[in-house]
Amino acid sequence: MKIHIRIWILVLVLAASLLVISPSFEKGVIIKSVDRNSTAYDAGLRPNIIIKSLNEQTILSVDDYSSAVSNIIPLNATNKTKIVINTKEGDFILFTNEIPEITVSNIPKTKIKTGLDLSGGARALVKAQDIQLSSAELDDLIAITSNRLNEFGIADVSVKPVTDLSGNNFMLVEVAGATPTDIEDLVSQQGKFEAKIGNETIFIGGERDITYVARIGQDAGVYSCNLITDGEICSFRFAISLSEEAAQKHAQVTNQLSSDQENPQYLEKKLDLYLDDKLVDSLYIGKDLKGSTTTQIAISGSGSGITRQEAFDNAELNMKQLQTVLITGSLPYKLEIVKIDTISPVLGREFTKNLMIFALTVFALISLIIFFIYRKIKITLAVILTMISEALITLAISALINWNLDAPSIAGIIAGMGTGVNDQLVILSEATNKRGTLKERIKSALFIILGAFLTIVAAMIPLFLAGAGMLKGFALTTILGVSVGILITRPAFSEIVRNIMKE
User: In angstroms, how far is the first alpha carbon of the chain from the final one?
Assistant: First the structure.
């Protein structure tokens, strides 16, 4: 039997999908966060390091880690104990009488990321400091916070209003896969950015003064790393464009400055950058910019770490945070975190178990029905294998785009598989019809399927664009599922059916 190119495409895409999902056989637990003011941080432990053992006690899960720590550090211990933490990067030694201030989690089994309801995360109840917000003011705060988190690249985040029995308004922020430390860093700061020359504010973050912020390419990035006393430091730089009003303010203030006596090529004062009233950098102002209404400014900063990779990562993170604040502007209020905690998975293992049982039941029923109708085991196997292929390819695409799969997203994958079975039955129905040639009948079936595909996508796109949370996830995976079907699996299935019918 000659294998058509459409079938080869399915085989190659399926193989690539399995590589993308690539199950992990790594053993141990992975560090999610480390308190910066802790002995663990001082010893060199950092997020994403995999712990293999504690004092030669093998660690395979979070339960193993908790048990080992409890055995090593007794309750109310006063004497410091030596803890040898064996990791992939080597051994880290701590002398402490307290449980290490790190958060760990089990190593993900695959590259598929799950959402808040499956993998848990962190939740923070936030209010405006020293002020009671009205419903309208709270809506503004939520809109700006959501925009900031989206600009920062947070994949699965929920920001919604909450009102207590006394009528006080709060903002509830939930982030999938995050730790309490992560979410505290994300939402606790107001993010007020100011650029000053002396005591004069030249521009602030937000659309009023900033018209463009470079995010990628040659105008943004980490450009150098150098050794320092206790590690390395990497510097970043990115370009921004100022509004005409901010440029005029820059010209007005610099026109009153003289050249620096020690460095005549620069003006006597620097452009100081403040984030939440803290000085983050000071930039020299070239003498050629005196009185100039320039709208192009280069913002710079740095990040440090024990290793070059850590310094580079911190520099990238600091750059991204600064870019986000410049784009979104400061929050309208200083925030206070009322409560912060960890969210346990709502569905978790029980959901996965029930889903597998449901999938196997559906597969069995479909197999029996198709075999009863067509009386051919090859046709039955072709339908089942096509369904599995669609699901795997859709999961791989989700992993590739770092989409967090929650329960509605998985429901979208199931909906796509259901549509796939329907389309395959259309192909089988047309193929077994005696009108015209087999090629013409299959071509007619694919035309019908194309019409159904366009209808589904047309219905899902508005839902994806306007939706949030479950609507967005369901719409996306449904679109991915039916797109995989129309582009890859339906053409391959039609060729498989053609070969079976010719036998």
Answer: 9
pLDDT tens track for 57-104: 898 888 888 888 888 887 776 788 888 889 888 888 888 888 887 878
Question: Which residue, chain included where needed, has tokens 């129309």?
Answer: 486
| H or E segment to which residue 113 belongs | strand 113-114
One-letter-per-residue 3-state SS of 254-311: HCCCCECCCCCCEECCCEEEEECCEEEEEECCEHHHCCCCCCEEEEEEEEEECCHHHH
Contacts of 62 (CB under 8 A, 6+ apart): 29, 104, 105, 106
pTM: 0.61
**Within 13 A of 265's CA, how many CA atoms are on the CB side?**
1
Structural domain boundaries in the chain: 5-22+348-502, 29-106, 121-189+338-343, 193-313
Domain 121-189+338-343 has CATH 3.30.70.3400: yes
Considering the domain 29-106 in this protein, what is its CATH number?
2.30.42.10
Q: Which residues pair with 163 in a beta bridge?
A: 169
Mean pLDDT of the chain: 81
Rounded to whole angstroms, the Cα distance separating 261 from 95 reads: 52
CB atoms within 10 A of CB 454: 12
Length of the chain counted residue by residue: 503
204 vs 267: CA distance, rounded Å? 21
> Distance between CA 335 and CA 142 in Å, rounded?
12
The 10 Å CB-count burial string (b at 16+, else e) for 108-142 is: eeebbbbbbbbbbbbbbbbbbeeeebeeeebeebb
Homologous superfamily of domain range 5-22+348-502: Multidrug efflux transporter AcrB transmembrane domain (1.20.1640.10)
Measure the CA angle with vertex 310, ends 306 and 315; round to 5°.
115
The predicted-structure confidence for 386-440, as pLDDT tens digits, reads as follows 888 888 999 899 888 877 787 778 888 888 888 888 888 888 888 777 777 777 7
pLDDT tens, residue by residue, 355-378: 778 777 877 888 888 888 878 888
Q: Measured over all CA atoms, what is the biggest interatomic distance in the chain, rounded to whole angstroms?
A: 95
Please say whether the beta carbons of 47 and 33 come within 8 A.
yes
Cα dihedral 355/358/364/368 (nearest 10): -140
* Secondary structure (DSSP) of 295-355: -EEEEEEEEEESSHHHHHHHHHHHHHHHHHHHHH---SS-EEEEEEEEEPPSSHHHHHHHH
Q: State the amino acid at position 203 in one-letter form.
A: F
- β-pairing, 113-114 vs 404-405, is parallel
Cα–Cα dist 311/321, whole Å? 15
